[in-house]
Design goal:
CATH topology of the largest domain in chain B: Uridine Diphospho-n-acetylenolpyruvylglucosamine Reductase, domain 3
Radius of gyration of chain A: 15 Å
Distance between the termini of chain B: 56 Å
Oligomer: heterodimer
Largest interface: A-B, 26 and 29 residues
Largest sheet of chain A: 5 strands, mixed
Largest sheet of chain B: 5 strands, antiparallel
Order of helices and strands of chain A: EEHEEEHHHH
CATH class of the largest domain in chain B: Alpha Beta
Number of domains of chain A: 2
Number of helices of chain A: 5
CATH class of the largest domain in chain A: Alpha Beta
Number of strands of chain B: 14
CATH superfamily of the largest domain in chain A: Beta-grasp domain
Structural class of chain A: alpha+beta
Structural class of chain B: alpha+beta
Strand order of the largest sheet of chain B: 4-5-10-6-7
Number of strands of chain A: 5
Strand content of chain B: 25-35%
Number of domains of chain B: 3
Radius of gyration of chain B: 19 Å
Order of helices and strands of chain B: EHEHEHEEHHHHHHEEHEEEEEEEHHH
Strand order of the largest sheet of chain A: 2-1-5-3-4
Distance between the termini of chain A: 41 Å
Chain lengths: 160, 293
């Protein structure tokens, strides 16, 4: 079947099997391997992308279901060579070690800050509660997101 | 790599269209809403439908919460996140926010729906317990028209409901009785997990005494367990610790938990007792706060 999904602002049309999952559409059809494919059971959150602006686990959405919808992946965070504040925050505060969970963490963080620019630590923890990190113990991820909350506004103004 | 078996995919543009598709495609067709129960089952080949009828486009038609004076009506495509965030709903039935805060996680709540949760009919699922607690009725539509069934009639057994092959659950209706309130408490092993035991409770007061009370348990039997004996024992009593003790005792002996990786039977009965007391206490406190205001 033919599906057309707007991915990172560009319309991607492909002929796919109905059973193709969105995560594999992104990785295999479009070559966007920034979105990681982890547990396959909607537990780990490595595959989180923004779907019409909100985080979803792309291993549990069919590409067919996403036809006509907008998807944003980690590849879209960097703009004109400038990292998104959440990416910068993860660098500043050691929000990653192996990096496997990072794309999903970044997208959930971006969605949280889009809704709530100055979240409490509890709100950050809740936002990433569906995502598993086996390296950091989460504390540095929370600090990274808070770094982005503190510096994001400033950075985006500079970019503008 | 977990991949569903091949199937054909169709999108419904209205409830009537979904019903027509289900009638035409027959026994091997399944409705998919949020997909967070069905797709994992299809990946594990526990479900192998030949056709999927996607009803996500019906969110405009079936995604609503209508709070009316005597009844709250919730569309079946209302997503978990929408239930969590709806202040008007949670002012009347705070049990929804209690439960939604501990159902899975943000990305899952962005997709999963009320109707999908009820139709999956997992004995550990939280919203079935919430709807049982609130004495909800389910509106089921087919080509012959609509019928309205109680939660008791809706639940036929684990993973089985009253919804026929060519029917769609469209709405949940919950009676509003004042003054009353509700609460939900869940014990899970880690954030976002299924319940070890979860308890929903609703209390309605008439002056100094309990006019009615309902308790719905999750994860302690083949079905979401409503316990009429608790309602009978509490009606006419004062809302005090003795009442909650009696209710907890009934809950512990009326449920049928099994020992599994989440805990022993004894532990789960202990939880059923303790959580029943706590949840009734919270619901009664909320009514008192309401009346006090």
């Amino acid at each position: 079947m033919r599906v057309s999904i707007t991915v990172n602002g560009e319309l991607a049309t492909r002929e796919v099997e109905a059973r193709l999952l969105l995560v594999h559409f992104l990785r295999e059809e479009l070559g966007l391997t920034g979105t990681h494919w982890g547990c396959d059971t909607s537990n780990c959150g490595a595959c989180v992308v923004l779907y019409d602006g909100e985080p979803v686990k792309s291993c549990t959405v069919l590409a067919a279901m996403a036809d006509g919808h907008e998807v944003r992946t980690v590849e879209d965070l960097e703009r004109e060579g400038v990292l998104d504040p959440v990416q910068q925050g993860f660098m500043e505060c050691h929000g990653l070690q192996c990096g496997f969970c990072t794309p999903g963490m970044l997208m959930s963080a971006r969605a949280l800050l889009d809704r709530d620019p100055r979240p409490s630590d509890h709100a950050v923890r809740e936002a990433i509660s569906g995502q598993i990190c086996r390296c950091t113990g989460y504390a540095s991820i929370v600090r990274s997101v808070q770094w982005a909350a503190e510096h994001g506004q400033h950075q985006q103004q500079e970019l503008a | 790599m977990q991949v569903p078996a091949p199937f054909e995919y169709a999108r419904a543009t209205s409830v009537d269209h979904a019903i027509a598709l289900l009638e035409r495609l027959g026994d091997e067709a399944r409705v998919v809403a949020g997909g967070h129960s069905l797709l994992p089952m299809m990946k594990l080949r526990l479900a192998n439908p030949e056709y999927l009828v996607d009803i996500n486009d019906l969110h405009d038609e079936l995604g609503y919460v209508a709070v009316e004076e005597r009844e709250v009506r919730i569309g079946a495509m209302t997503r978990h996140r929408e239930l969590l965030e709806n202040d008007e709903l949670n002012a009347v039935f705070p049990i929804f926010r209690d439960a939604e805060r501990v159902i899975a996680d943000v990305p899952v709540r962005n997709r999963g729906t009320l109707g999908g949760a009820l139709c999956q009919a997992d004995p550990s699922e939280d919203l079935s317990s919430v709807c049982t607690t609130l004495d909800a009725r389910c509106v089921i539509r087919g080509s012959a028209g609509e019928r309205v069934v109680s939660m008791d009639d809706f639940h036929r057994g684990p993973y089985q409901t009253a919804v026929g092959q060519a029917e769609v659950l469209t709405e949940v209706r919950i009676p509003v009785r004042e003054p009353g309130s509700s609460a939900y408490t869940k014990v899970d092993r880690r954030a976002g997990d299924w319940a070890v035991v979860a308890v929903g409770a609703a209390v309605w007061l008439d002056g100094e005494v309990i006019a009615d009370a309902r308790v719905g348990l999750a994860a302690v039997g083949p079905n979401t367990t409503g316990i009429p004996e608790i309602s009978e024992a509490l009606r006419g009593r004062r809302p005090d610790e003795e009442a909650w003790r009696v209710a907890g005792e009934i809950a512990a002996r009326s449920c049928t938990p099994v020992t599994d990786g989440r805990g022993t039977e004894d532990y789960k009965r202990h939880l059923a007792d303790e959580l029943t007391r706590r949840t009734l206490r919270t619901a009664a406190r909320r009514v008192a706060e309401q009346v006090g205001r």
